[in-house]
Design a protein that fits this description.
Chain A: Its EC number is 3.5.1.4. Chain A: GO terms for molecular function: amidase activity. Chain A: InterPro entries: Amidase, Amidase_dom, AS_sf. Chain A: It is an enzyme of class 3 (hydrolase). Chain A: Keywords: Hydrolase. The complex is a heterodimer of chains A (456) and B (369). With 456 residues, chain A is α/β, with parallel strands linked by helices. In chain A, 43% of the residues lie in helices and 13% in strands. The longest helix of chain A is centred in the last third of the chain and has 22 residues. Chain A starts with a helix and ends with a helix. Chain B is an alpha+beta fold and 369 residues long. Chain B has a six-stranded mixed β-sheet with strand order 6-7-8-3-9-10, with helices on both faces. In chain B, strands 11-12-13-20-14 form a five-stranded mixed beta barrel. In chain B, strands 15-19-16-17-18 form a five-stranded antiparallel β-sheet. Classes of the chains: A alpha/beta (456), B alpha+beta (369). Chains A and B meet through helix 1, helix 3, strand 1 and helix 4 of A and helix 2 of B.
Chain lengths: 456, 369
């Protein structure tokens, strides 16, 4: 299988190199991905654009054969979270309500950019309804299953659940997700892949179904940091990238001891400390200390609610207040309804604390990168979460706890696999920078990945 | 043309951790045969199916389809289709789009796509729901859609991985019948994986029983049921009555067994020339051949072997009655019979009874080789 299957499991950059060198054929690769998608064992793809994919693959084949690739990722297949408009296809946000909505009239700019770069759109994948929850459960179309536990069905993480499952289970080399509270980084963590949350405004969100216009960001889930670097370039429509690897000896790393290290599963804590010592041995300078802004943000979330809830209510008020609310996942309705109860004063307080915090964190880091475990636990089993809404909400909030701080303070982040627990479930290491420092972040992530993956 | 549609030659699967999932699987399947794989979960049946489909790599041995070696060929280049228990239906595509999907992947010309999709929609009676999406389909319709998607590519072998597992019992029964009829009409080879032995026996022309990664027995359902070759098959298949004992002599197609209920005999499933006397064996009598009579009733009908016990329970289910007979403190045997027979023969709880059968109906299986 071995060749094309082996190829399909490589990183996007490796695949692109093989394609450009004429060692592999993008049409064969696309056919293989489509065949595997046809045999998916849980609802990962909601809609497969096989016609489009094969047409794009034929075009890529011609360009590559002529020695004229459209980009460093020409001919690489990709899966798209079903929040992103595809011309002629319905965008469903994995909601039963939009199952039969009118098709989109155009490709979202982010998809158009990838298409112009020669990437192949395989189709649209599942998510938490409206992208609003960190566990990835979907009662309408079923939950895509985490491939790391063949015995007990475990949560894929959300909301870009199937984006991560598609990459981890070999259906697509890379995928697009969105991240408003952790929705790229959490599924990346639970599925053992790399996920990159970009800074607000870096990658275009036009034509992407909104949850929170302020906090929504688009980014890749992939098999390597190099893939994320190239996808960051391609998704913005850029043709070069200024990203440079930052050598470990010049890396400064800050470990906040506030909130994000509380109540970790033992394997998460152990793998995190192990990653830190590897980085230290490689020459990085580590500092640990409190970060009061995190306490303040956590406290305020309890008291005042969240920007996401307020904005999600504005996006979806007609639905959640209307007669169709019963057709929406009750757990999603409950979260959106919290936004309805918020006052203008709550939102203003949140925005002020956010602005002040961004400045303070920038000063505190002063060019250093911040690290934390992406999630405090590995992917939980699904059955208990389905049986108990209170447990679902508790585990959901804990799953989102660390990553949502990054959204609140506009900290771009790269989630990197850093080991597994005793049951082979992946753990993840989150490297963050301040807002709009994405290129330094990616440069540091290239190095951190190398250090974490190196043999002892 | 090759003689066999499907040949597995010493097929083997070892996972990266070293776990052996399948070992030494040999099988030859003729064109148009309906083969069932059955065994407890983890026995390797699904792994074998996935190796045939190209969804799992093959660690050793060969896979031949119509004489051609497909061991190293990727899934999309194999003349197989797979139907999964979850049907793998794309929820945001219509029934028609779901069926077309497989043809797009195999790059069938678009004029041909419509013709083939129309024909399979017609065959599987999906015309009324061709433009519906998954959310509005019943369980049976989803099942037929999955079949349509699998068959539209005109595979030489259809692989079915517990395809009826999600259906309720009544629907399951009727779809089992539909599947058999469809398979005969199409005359293509079906490989059907199930953990339910009754389903395997009723569906398969031949049944492969697997246990712990190995093939225990490959036989037609009736032979599997009446002539098990191993203790595992004897216990796993059917409603066999099993009595442990020691071999006292075996020759000329007859094995005599000493049991704590007396000397019994049956047809040996093993090579009598190599079996040692005193070997531990099982005497296996299919339920249908065991009759129940009041203790000491006169012999009739050529029943040659008898064990005696006390009736400990009688459970009636409609016309059928299940009588539990306690032979001793370690062994009770449950007999299915008719209500009338129990009444006519005066069998009641606490009464002494004889269980009788013809020794040539029983099989003797080696417990430990």
């Amino acid at each position: 299988m071995q060749d094309v299957d082996h190829l399909a499991r490589q990183s996007a950059a490796s695949i692109a190199r093989a394609l450009a060198a004429g060692q592999a054929d993008p049409v064969r690769l696309t056919e293989h991905c489509l065949e595997k998608i046809g045999q998916q064992t849980s609802p990962v793809f909601l809609n497969v654009t096989a016609d489009r994919a094969l047409r794009e693959a034929e075009a890529a084949f011609k360009r590559l054969k002529a020695g004229n690739p459209a980009s460093p990722l020409d001919g690489v297949p990709m899966a798209w979270k079903d929040l992103v408009d595809f011309k002629g296809e319905t965008t469903t946000a994995a909601s039963d309500i939009y199952r039969n909505a009118a098709p989109a009239s155009d490709d979202a700019p982010v998809l158009a950019n990838a298409t112009n770069a020669g990437m192949i759109a395989l189709g649209k994948v599942n998510l938490s309804e409206f992208a609003y929850s960190g566990l990835g459960l979907n009662p309408h179309f079923g939950t895509p299953l985490n491939p790391h536990d063949p015995v007990t069905p475990r949560a894929p993480g959300g909301s870009s659940s199937a984006s991560a499952v598609a990459v981890a289970s070999g259906l697509a080399p890379c995928a697009i997700g969105t991240d408003t509270g952790g929705s790229i980084r959490i599924p990346a963590a639970f599925n053992g892949v790399v996920g990159c949350k970009s800074s607000e405004g870096r990658i275009p969100t036009k034509g992407v179904f909104a949850l929170s216009k302020t906090l929504d960001t688009v980014g890749p889930l992939a098999r390597s940091v190099e893939d994320c670097v190239l996808l960051d370039m391609v998704l913005r429509g850029a043709v070069t990238t200024p990203v440079r690897r930052i050598p470990a000896e010049t890396l400064r790393i800050f470990v906040p001891e506030t909130v994000v290290l509380d109540d970790l599963e033992p394997a998460v804590a152990e793998n995190f400390e192990n990653s830190l010592s590897r980085l230290e041995r490689a020459g990085a300078r580590l500092t640990r200390g409190p970060l009061p802004e995190f306490t303040e943000a956590a406290r305020l979330a309890e008291e005042a609610g969240s920007i996401t809830a307020a904005e999600a209510y504005v996006e979806h008020r007609d639905l959640v207040d209307g007669p169709q609310a019963g057709r929406i996942d009750r757990r999603v309705v409950a979260r959106i309804e919290r936004g309805k109860a918020m006052s203008a004063a709550d939102l203003i307080r949140l925005n002020r604390v956010r602005a002040a915090g961004m400045a303070a964190i920038g000063d505190r880091l002063d060019g250093a990168f911040m690290v934390m475990p992406t999630t405090p636990h590995v992917a939980p089993a699904i059955a208990p979460l389905e049986a108990d809404d209170a447990l679902f909400h508790r585990i959901n909030l804990k799953t989102l706890r660390n990553t949502m701080l990054g959204n609140f303070f506009n900290l771009p982040g790269v989630a990197l696999p850093n080991g597994t627990d005793a049951g082979s479930m992946p753990t993840s290491f989150l490297l963050c920078a301040i807002g709009n420092d994405d290129e330094r972040l990616l440069g540091a992530a290239l190095e951190v990945e190398r250090v974490l993956m190196a043999a002892n | 043309m090759a003689d066999y549609d499907l040949e597995l030659v010493k097929l083997r699967k070892v996972y990266p951790g070293g776990t052996v999932a399948v070992e030494g699987f040999d099988l030859r399947v003729e064109r148009g045969e309906f083969i069932s794989f059955v065994g407890p979960s983890g026995c390797g049946k699904t792994t074998t199916l996935r190796m045939i489909a190209g969804l799992e790599s093959i660690s050793g041995g060969d896979l031949l389809i119509r004489g051609q070696n497909f061991t190293q060929v990727p899934t999309e280049r194999r003349p197989t289709s797979t139907i999964f228990q979850n049907y793998a239906i794309f929820p945001h595509m219509t029934v028609r789009q779901n069926i077309e999907f497989g043809l797009h992947v195999r790059k069938v010309a678009s004029a041909d796509v419509k013709k083939r999709v129309d024909s399979i929609i017609d065959k599987l009676q999906l015309g009324d729901i061709a433009n519906a999406k998954e959310g509005s389909l019943s369980g049976g319709q989803k099942q037929r859609l999955a079949l349509a998607r699998g068959l539209v590519t005109e595979p030489e072998i259809l692989l079915l991985d517990e395809p009826l597992g999600a259906l309720d019992a009544n629907l399951r029964k009727s779809i089992q019948e539909e599947l058999k009829i469809l398979q005969r009409e199409l005359n293509i080879t079906f490989v059907f994986v199930t953990h339910a032995q009754s389903e395997a026996l009723s569906m398969g022309d031949r049944v492969v029983v697997m246990n712990s990664g190995k093939v225990e027995q490959i036989s037609a359902p009736f032979d599997l049921y009446t002539r098990p070759k191993s203790p595992f098959v004897a216990r796993f298949i059917g409603r066999n009555k099993i009595i442990e004992g020691q071999l006292s002599e075996a020759a000329n197609g007859r094995a005599v067994v000493r049991t704590r209920f007396g000397t019994l005999s049956g047809v040996p499933s093993f090579d009598t020339s190599t079996a040692s006397t005193d070997a531990r064996v099982l005497l296996v009598a299919p339920s249908e051949y065991v009759d129940i009579l009041p203790a000491g009733a006169p012999q009739d009908g050529g029943q040659t072997d008898t064990v005696s016990g006390q009736v400990s329970a009688i459970d009636a289910v409609g016309q059928f009655v299940y009588v539990t007979v306690r032979l001793d403190e370690d062994l009770s045997i449950r007999i299915e019979t008719h209500r009338e027979k129990i009444g006519q023969r005066g069998i009641e709880i606490g009464g002494q009874v004889d269980l009788r059968w013809q020794s040539e109906r029983a099989t003797v299986v080696l417990e430990a080789a």
